[in-house]
């Protein structure tokens, strides 16, 4: 009985875990069929979840909400999995407008998708919300990084092989000058920085970042200060696998907040068919542990099974 | 409606290619024969002629044309030859690479086309020049002009009819505030003009007119006419009343002293297969003479004959 209680408690645990253990729960329903006292004893024993009010054990509202979230992890991932990638991206971007997702999601989508994929996402956005994503970003996001975001989301980058190396060197210098002259507050609104980051092709930018490192002896990310938007932009363009691997890691950290946890689902679903192998390798190198092991350890139930399948275990 | 006239029945591409070949051979060029063919064939026919000519005579048709004729005539024929999408990409590139960026061309292309037409131009631009149009516009402009042109060309507007009347009122007020303060390069003006759908903008401008008894373009022109304000007005007029806009451009260049052949060529070549008929009709009521008369007065030689053929003489 003690074992059963413990495993059922674990199964219902919404704290810190990702997902719930549906199989154990279903088994308990079978085991405790027609035994309401068992259930009553369980409720009395599970003090975090239930409190006694009068003669009944009431669910803590807080816990209920968390539990519902945990149950929906599997539902959400299944719905997202079925959706067209463009619609997914459009909906994720829309969430940012209404502040339920951090703005870095827009940077992520604008910078890691191909020009065709981003265009598709923009079309889906228009069909779903009767607005262009550019107008919504420009209108709803008024922070200092707004110009950069509008530029990133409007981009329709050249994707061919041609790179003008001389220009890349010149622009690496220009970036260096912008960094030297402005404080990091001003940097995010610097015209040249925005122009270079939002219009140049990704190949060109990679060459530019390489030249920057040769010129200044360190990667450009180190000189961007605490500027999160710029950091994420550079990372997404230059080393997307590293960006995704870090996003996954943040989700697993102790005390990670809701949006960070949601990024686990988002990253795995959106990259499963794209560069998951590379992300797994990068994750292993960076954090010294295999991604499948982290998932197995920290997630539960059908949600866990789906994640493991998606990463191609 | 188009103004060019194609003979019925139209000669085969082989006959046309032969005629052109004959026109090139020997001393000098038979310009009349060239015009008789090229100015009287539609896009598909011109394409066929090019294919057949190049197969038959093993040389690039356009290169041959360029070597046979020169000056304004040559520029007009060259620009005329392409299909509208490629033509706009080529003209955008010419405008950008000019010593001073020819901003009306960029504004016309950005604002007259639908979202998908503009996208097609950008795609062809990328394949021709191995750069995105956005990166070229941005790297060849600075300051306020860059802000405006980049925003106009980079956007992928919602193309639908949905409008929000409350928003139109609010944004009409925002525009008015900026205009009364004389802050034309204000971020809000650029945001509204470059991201909102055309339907929404029309609603906004109507609210503006209702509130102030003055159209927004008149309100803008009552202030000191610097280039930037001219650009703003051009953008607004291209989006709301393109026929009137082009009629005025033609009238300005044909009635003032001296003449800007590049502008004249541009408007006629870009509209002869589109809506030059409506522009012509409006011109006649405004200028008290036909477009043909005005062109004949201001131009001469083969250039004049070519333009007149396109205008539908």
From TrEMBL, chain A:
GO molecular function: calcium ion binding; calcium-dependent phospholipid binding; phosphatidylserine binding
InterPro entries, per database record: Annexin_repeat (IPR018502), Annexin_sf (IPR037104)
UniProt-listed SUPFAM superfamilies: Annexin (SSF47874)
Key word Calcium present: yes
Domain of life the protein comes from: Eukaryota
GO CC field: cytoplasm; plasma membrane
Keyword Calcium: yes
TM region(s), chain numbering: none
Keyword annotations from UniProtKB, A to Z: Annexin, Calcium, Calcium/phospholipid-binding, Metal-binding, Repeat
Official protein name in the record: Annexin
Source organism of the structure: Rhynchospora tenuis
Automatic annotation (TrEMBL), chain B:
GO molecular function: calcium ion binding; calcium-dependent phospholipid binding; phosphatidylserine binding
Residues at which Ca(2+) binds: 24, 26, 28, 68, 256, 258, 296, 299
Pfam families, per database record: Annexin (PF00191)
Keyword hit for Repeat: yes
Gene3D superfamilies xref list: Annexin
Signal peptide range: none
GO BP terms: response to cold; response to heat; response to salt stress; response to water deprivation
Annotated Gene Ontology cellular component terms: cytoplasm; plasma membrane
PANTHER family reported in the protein's UniProt record: ANNEXIN, ANNEXIN D8
Protein name as catalogued: Annexin
Organism: Rhynchospora tenuis
